[in-house]
């Protein structure tokens, strides 16, 4: 290459011709950008708009959400032994010393204290699994009989869970066995996990962001059933209760706390009232149940009085022919909860 200098004293006198340049990727097809910190806003929006599109396509109007422990693997009621899982949502069993004791271990005295306690808890959790399955079946069977106005024909009170094993699986399983649609809002975790097989395939979701998953739990729910669980269940339960207590959700929501002995041993709710931490009327947000039949009656009463009866009265006062044109949400769903600003 010549060392000749351009008259301006800075640039070379001759510049080689550039070679072929490939097209730049479209921004929305560029994985480097989409997976970067700069693409975070797009990823967040995707976890809002993609579920919304599917809820509309599947004509989901509203939901009944089941929360509960994911740490136990449910088996048929005849097989009362449960295998404790290593972590929430994991498919790997916990170490042997953390597993419930077997009957021979208890009889010959080789069972640890933890093993004996978890053997008793395993039987109790098996009951809760079957109760959740039964309750979800009953709610779905009832919801399928409800007549929704034409032309919307949307699905009401669809059973929704976190999509994992344990109580979540039981809820989806019961709804599936009743012949209804059922939703799983899974979360991507660092250890191995899979959605349970009873979720309706078109309503099987996986989220990266916990707060977007929580939004879809709260926004569509008309009722919440909380079965015994750990940190995740407690977090989800109190988040919804806080939204209801502070009127940030401008809707009524029926909250059924299932397993009164369990929850009243974990939390002293009356102590919260006695110390002034909550108002006595805040306890009205909680309704305790110990059988599927009792929980179902609480749900049916709450959903009927808060939604079905007012909706029927409104339709009588405003016939479809005289009312305003229906929006996309009216036709296809879902029905969003209004937030109080």
Briefly summarize what is shown.
This protein has 341 residues and is α/β, with parallel strands linked by helices. It has helices spanning 31-34, 40-57, 103-107, 113-143, 167-177, 210-220, 231-245, 260-266, 269-274, 292-317, 328-332; strands spanning 63-67, 72-73, 83-84, 158-161, 182-187, 204-207, 221-226, 254-258, 286-289. It has a 7-stranded parallel beta sheet, sandwiched between helices. It has a two-stranded antiparallel sheet with strand order 2-3.
What key attributes describe this structure?
341 residues; alpha/beta; Rossmann fold; seven-stranded parallel β-sheet; two-stranded antiparallel sheet; 11 helices; 9 strands
Describe this structure in words.
This protein has 341 residues and is α/β, with parallel strands linked by helices. The protein has a domain at 44-80 and 127-318 and 327-332: Rossmann fold (3-Layer(aba) Sandwich). Helices cover 41% and strands 11% of the residues. The chain has 11 helices and 9 strands. It has helices at 31-34, 40-57, 103-107, 113-143, 167-177, 210-220, 231-245, 260-266, 269-274, 292-317, 328-332, and strands at residues 63-67, 72-73, 83-84, 158-161, 182-187, 204-207, 221-226, 254-258, 286-289. The strands form 2 sheets. It has a 7-stranded parallel beta sheet, with helices on both faces. It has a two-stranded antiparallel sheet with strand order 2-3. α4 (113-143) runs parallel beside α5 (167-177) and α4 (113-143) packs parallel to α10 (292-317). The longest helix is centred in the middle third of the chain and has 31 residues, at 113-143. The relative contact order is 0.13.
């Amino acid at each position: 290459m010549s060392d000749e200098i351009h008259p301006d004293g800075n640039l070379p006198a001759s510049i080689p011709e550039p070679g072929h340049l490939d097209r730049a990727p479209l921004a929305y097809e560029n994985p480097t950008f989409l997976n970067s910190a700069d693409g975070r806003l797009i990823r967040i929006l995707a976890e809002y708009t993609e579920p919304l599109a599917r809820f509309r396509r599947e004509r989901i109007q509203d939901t009944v959400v089941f929360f509960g422990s994911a740490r136990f693997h449910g088996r048929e009621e005849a097989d009362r032994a449960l295998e404790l899982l290593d972590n929430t949502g994991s498919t790997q069993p916990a170490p042997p010393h953390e597993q419930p004791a077997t009957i021979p271990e208890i009889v010959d005295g080789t069972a640890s204290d933890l093993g004996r306690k978890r053997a008793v808890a395993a039987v109790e959790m098996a009951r809760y699994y079957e109760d959740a399955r039964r309750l979800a079946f009953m709610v779905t069977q009832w919801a399928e009989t409800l007549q929704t106005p034409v032309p919307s024909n949307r699905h009401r009170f669809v059973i929704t869970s976190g999509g994992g094993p344990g109580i979540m699986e039981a809820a989806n399983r019961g709804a599936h066995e009743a012949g209804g649609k059922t939703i799983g809002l899974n979360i991507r975790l660092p250890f191995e996990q899979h959605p349970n097989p009873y979720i309706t395939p078109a309503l099987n979701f996986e989220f990266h962001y916990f707060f977007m998953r929580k939004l879809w739990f709260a926004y569509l729910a008309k009722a919440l059933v909380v079965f015994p669980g750990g940190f995740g269940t407690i977090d989800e339960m109190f988040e919804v209760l806080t939204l209801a207590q502070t009127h940030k959700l401008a809707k009524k929501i029926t909250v059924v706390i299932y397993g009164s002995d369990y929850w009243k041993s974990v939390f002293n709710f009356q102590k919260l009232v006695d110390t002034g931490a909550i108002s006595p009327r805040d306890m009205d947000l909680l309704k305790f149940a110990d059988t599927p039949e009792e929980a179902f009656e609480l749900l049916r009463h709450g959903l009927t009085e808060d939604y079905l009866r007012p909706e029927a009265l409104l339709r009588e006062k405003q016939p479809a022919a005289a009312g305003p044109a229906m929006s996309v949400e009216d036709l296809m769903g879902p029905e969003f909860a209004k937030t109080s600003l």
